[in-house]
Amino acid sequence: MQLTQPHIAFKELHKTCFTYPAIDNHAHPLLKEAHRDRYAFEGLISEAQGTALTVDAVHTLACLRATPQLAHVLGVESATWEDIKATRSQLDYADLCEMFMRPTGIQCLLLDDGLGGVEEFAENLEWHDRFTAAPTKRIVRVEIVAEGILKSLFPQNSSILHQFNDRLLASLTESATNPNVVGFKSIACYRTGLDISPSAESDEDILVCLNSALQTYRETGTLRLALKALNDHIVRMALQVAGEYKKPVQFHTGLGDNDITLNRSSPSHLQAVIRTFPNTIFVLLHSSYPFTREAGYLTAVYPNVFLDFGEVFPFVSGAGQRSIIQQVLELCPTNKILWSTDGHWWPESFYLGTLQARQVLYAVLSDTVSAGELLERAAALIAENALFHNANRVYSLGLEPNLSIVNS
């Protein structure tokens, strides 16, 4: 792992932040070699789309910071973004993956394989075990499961709600009892917003949504569930099963692409269902940025809410990342913060997501120690828990930290 501090003020804290093994509690698979150039590489540093991605994103501080960090690994100092793209394209793909995955110190990956394009263009979960000391585990994306079930019921209409409910419950239960599945994920934030109703809609309302979705599928050949009564119903079923089997449910919150309605992506909208499902663990993803303080509040007052501080590495500037982690620590109990890369498609996303998180953890915690507000050993324990132990406990992984996988 690349270290950048010319003078180390707190050696124990520094060593912990940069060498302690990590559990990546939310990421997605890497692309297959045949599809390594399938998506614009600028997606590494931005969730934007179109020209906002390919033209504008390269002018962000996030990109300007990431460029020399990638150049250091590639051995092309003083490189431009275009130099980075050209250099990586000439490397053997296996070597490229090894080059960026090995230094991360990630001991275990928890991968959501429901991201669009994964099935066609990405490696399977077991393939990723070559980079980690512990087997990769799966996070099941519930809306994608529901869409698959509804497609399997097409074109019939009789008793469709009953069959849909039975099959969805069976599928969720099967996942919850599968030892390779450690949690669920909802993308309600992308589909209908996080203001999920805690109360069941009428069967008539849900059936109208099912028939509408099937009609769209009949006419277009595509199925994307974005009908509030139905989507809320699916999430509630997942929350019920997850609570029964002690599997956390991750929620995309905050930061995302332009498919999100921003003012409905705050985790504060989840308060009603958090109360309704007190036995279910809620993991708020992506630092809930820019709603980080709202997320911190929820973790402070509800025992079943945890906060992931991921994806902002590398999408947000260094100063922004430090501010976000400071906001996380303002109120959030330190036994309830979980780290992730939100790595996807490119091995560089895992590298940057790890390097920058380690840098920012040290910067924020060392400042707190310098201010006399925290003992160095206590700060080091916070880092250990954030990187490894909290996720190990929440997802019931049963791992022991492998202290030899990162070299300082």
Automatic annotation (TrEMBL):
<dbReference type="InterPro" id="IPR006680">
    <property type="entry name" value="Amidohydro-rel"/>
</dbReference>
<dbReference type="GO" id="GO:0016787">
    <property type="term" value="F:hydrolase activity"/>
</dbReference>
<dbReference type="InterPro" id="IPR032466">
    <property type="entry name" value="Metal_Hydrolase"/>
</dbReference>
<protein>
    <submittedName>
        <fullName>Amidohydrolase 2</fullName>
    </submittedName>
</protein>
<dbReference type="Pfam" id="PF04909">
    <property type="entry name" value="Amidohydro_2"/>
</dbReference>
<feature type="domain" description="Amidohydrolase-related">
    <location>
        <begin position="230"/>
        <end position="366"/>
    </location>
</feature>
